[in-house]
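# step 3/5: fold
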Amino acid sequence: MEKPFWKTKTLAQMSQAEWESICDGCGRCCLNKLEDWETGELYWTNVACHMLDGHSCRCKDYANRLDHVPDCIQLDPQMIAELEWLPPSCGYRLVNEGKDLYPWHPLISGNPDSVHEAGISARGRSIPDTGITVEDYEDFIVKWPGEMPGKKRARKVRERG
């Protein structure tokens, strides 16, 4: 049996389609974060970019997102190792670290909704940033986006699988 491409290629070697498929669609990276300038500590909020569709956890206009949100970070293979704010469950981060994808990742499960069914995504747990000022973000600090999802959730998907 042939190994899947994410186990045989580096992120830089992947085709555009392969690269895009590494994203599990959790939407966690589209949540706004705060950084303490003195300590460098990162704080996640449940305030999502207004371009994030709260149900699909995908960008509403991915191809043109930089037109809507000029400071949106367009990921590339070189920056993955440098970005400390990528969620620990992020497919790009995992592949870059030589780890395998989780059972609920759509490339493993074959189901694009498995990330939501496993409770990994931002679906139902985020609010759009529309009308919320950056000064108010600290009222929306949460821990779950920066934490590793529990094994119990991943097991549920594997059992359904």
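# step 4/5: annotate
Helices lie at 5-8, 16-22, 65-68, 91-96, 106-109, 114-117, 151-160.
# step 5/5: archive (pending)
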